[in-house]
Design brief:
binds zinc ion, 22% strand, five-stranded mixed beta sheet, alpha/beta
Length: 317
Amino acid sequence: MKELLPGLYQIPVPIPYPLKTVNLYLFKGNGEVALLDTALGTKTARGTLELSLAELGLCFPDVKTVLLTHHHPDHYGLAGFFEGLGARVYLHEEELGRGHRFWLQPEAFEEQSWRLFLDHGTPEEALWGIRETMAKTRERVHPPQNPLSLRDGDLLEVAGRRLRVVWTPGHADGHVAFFLEEEGVLLAGDALLERVSPNVGLWAYTRENPLKDFLASLDRLEELPVRVAYAGHFGPIPHVRKRVQELRAHHQERLEILATHLDTPKTAWELSLNLFPQELDAPGRRFAFAETLAHLEYLRLEGHVRREGPPYRYFRA
Ligand SMILES: [Zn+2]
Ligand SMILES: [Zn+2]
């Protein structure tokens, strides 16, 4: 645990995913305790978090406010647990209708989800692995029952600090970053990561053009007077503009590579194998597929690519 500013702590918590840890942020001041993101509902995560709180003389029920950057399991997993102990949980309004509902009423999306994979060429046997992964993840996610909504531009007073809500869709529809304007500190969630490019995926329940959203969010972040950004994973990002430019260039390059595979019609699943040829487990293949599909739909909605089907095959326009 690290104190980033007086009363603002970064708590790294282990997660059983390739990213290894998720960074939570704790605000303590004015007799108030707030947690930004919550980690996944595993014994290890809960234990780590409990120890970190104890170091500050706190226990779980002291957390009265939970702010969530987005609905992904590593950030949202314990939100319902804290709500059950009396915390108010906040999520962006866009997340309430989609990402949050995905956990709260999984059956509402199940059929659509499998349909999306099948319509885009995913073989049945690959789907089994994906189903298994999702079922396992669900056991570790405790959705809040009555989360409250955040809107872009909201100014929150949390434990003696003021946070501006910055809606940054792309990695998730209702992803938000929190900007401490007076300190020039951005709590970026997964909108910017130091070492990897945040996954930008098209799923059955997302907005139609996540990559376009993501690039627009990068434009917004580039404009903010940020001194340093702290993200949901990995280390700090001291040069936000430089990181934004790198991520933009990365997606441009991936789009160009994708276009070279589109001389003959191919499904998103086939293309994801071309673009991510490395050996990946079921969750990894699922992310590779969703990211490839996001890039394909970006090109299609920009008029560079067409598709026929289902099963959908994409080719250069
Ligand atoms: Zn995420
Ligand atoms: Zn994350």
